[in-house]
Amino acid sequence: METAEQLLVQNYGIGGRYEPHVDALEIENDRIATFLIYMSDVEIGGATVFPKVGVTVHPKKGSAVLWYNLHRNGEKNLNTKHAGCPVLMGNKWVANKWIHEFGQEFRRPCSLSDWE
Ligand SMILES: O=C(O)CCC(=O)C(=O)O
Ligand SMILES: [Fe+2]
User: Is-contact 64 96, C-beta < 8 A?
Assistant: First the structure.
């Protein structure tokens, strides 16, 4: 994919976690969407949580989650704040594909609305 970053593979051992953050970088041609692929099951822990919207995604090998990081007007969407919970038992492997704005104009047309 031309307008995406290279696949980033991450491995978390026991206690491994990712602090709450948003993936948007506030740059031109920002990360419009995140595609997060779970490459392993995790025995206990390791969920990806989105506290602002009350969503918890438990890792399941072969599954993936996709979300938009930006509003249609290009502003970062703070509701996308998320974290990787600590792995308590097992091992977590994920791969991230960050898709950028350029090239997505016809797939996700912009709008002037500040909430859409
Ligand atoms: O490992 C996770 O569940 C989340 C990873 C993440 O948010 C990131 O790499 O930006
Ligand atoms: Fe993230």
Answer: no
Number of structural domains the chain divides into: 1
The DSSP secondary-structure symbol of 70 reads B
CATH for 92: 2.60.120.620
The 10s digit of each residue's pLDDT in 36-59 is: 999 999 999 999 999 999 999 999
Q: What residue numbers bound the domain in which 47 lies?
A: 8-100
Residue-wise pLDDT tens digits, 62-91:
999 999 999 999 999 999 999 999 999 999
Neighbours of 20 (CB within 10 A): 12
Cβ of 23 closer than 6 Å to ligand 1, yes or no, is yes
Residue with CA closest to ligand 1 atom 7: 83
User: Ligand 1: distance of its center to the CA of 72 in Å?
Assistant: 23
Residue bearing the CA closest to ligand 1, atom 1? 84
Give me the interface pTM, i.e. the ipTM. 0.99
* pTM of the predicted model over 0.80: yes
